[in-house]
Design a protein that fits this description.
This protein has five helices and nine strands. By secondary structure, it is of the alpha+beta class. The chain has two domains: 38 residues; 146 residues, Chalcone isomerase, CATH 3.50.70. The strands form two sheets. It has a seven-stranded antiparallel beta sheet. The chain is globular. Bound molecules: heme C (HEC). Heme C (HEC) binds next to strand 5, strand 6, strand 7, strand 8 and helix 4.
Length: 208
């Protein structure tokens, strides 16, 4: 037999001592799979007894969809000043969106709201520079068929949960009238637009 790399015989690579490890690997893979399934089911939203949305603590491990600035509206959350919105969604919901062009039941879209800093605080910056500062609170848009479909919540900063908005709140009408997919503003989340168009779920813009 031809010696390969440093005189190791090809047969050495296939020798039996490796097979017990392959067995161990299978066990490890199974355990990892079970953990993954547990993690996935852990991503579904939870509610308090009053029907408030429990703050999803691990949202920073979710998929980041987009950032926007000064796109909040007077009737929303803390209001009154410009804020950044960083939008996150559970990995499983994003995957489903890629496959179907719409959101599955139990989707949570969580918007982290942050203050805006700029040259007025850090004078060496460009005069138009804007950067993100402290957390101001969270808004959530949650799809749950057991609660009549989509609902909106505001979770104050450092709170364990947040209250739902009334079905008559403007959140519902603006999102229904202007959101490109299933009452969500996919037109502003560039990484999702192609999937929605491919699956024919993209509602052409209604800008007014
Ligand atoms: C006048 C229109 C308008 C109203 C009213 C409105 N939104 Fe939105 N909302 C938007 C737009 C535009 C976006 C797109 C992205 C952004 O703001 O960064 C958005 C995005 C969101 C998102 C991200 C997920 C999604 O659905 O696209 C959440 C969560 C959200 N809004 C919550 C709320 C809540 C809560 C209220 C009511 C208290 C509300 N919005 C009222 C226009 C509106």
């Amino acid at each position: 037999m031809q010696p390969i790399h440093g005189g190791v015989q090809r047969t050495d690579w296939l020798a039996p001592p490796f097979s017990p490890h392959i067995g161990t690997m299978t066990k490890i893979t199974k355990a990892a799979l079970l953990l993954a399934v547990a993690a996935l089911s852990g991503q579904a939203q939870q509610y308090t007894k009053n029907g408030d949305l429990v703050m999803p603590k691990d949202y920073r491990d979710w998929v980041f969809l987009s950032s926007s600035v000064s796109m909040s509206y007077p009737e929303e959350g803390p209001g009154g000043h410009a804020m950044f919105g960083n939008l996150f969604v559970q990995p499983a919901a994003r995957k489903q969106f890629e496959n179907t062009g719409t959101w599955p039941d139990k989707t949570v879209l969580l918007m982290e709201l942050r203050g805006v800093g700029g040259a007025s605080t850090d004078s060496f910056l460009n005069k138009d520079a804007q950067f993100q500062t402290e957390i101001m609170g969270y808004e959530a848009h949650v799809k749950d068929s057991t609660r009549g479909g989509w609902a909106f919540y505001f979770i104050p900063k450092d709170s364990a949960s947040g209250k739902p908005f009334d079905k008559t709140a403007k959140c519902f009408s603006c999102h229904a009238d202007h959101g490109a997919v299933d009452t969500t503003f996919v037109q502003y989340y560039p990484t999702l637009v192609a999937a929605a168009k491919k699956h024919g779920t993209y509602k052409e813009r209604n800008k007014h």
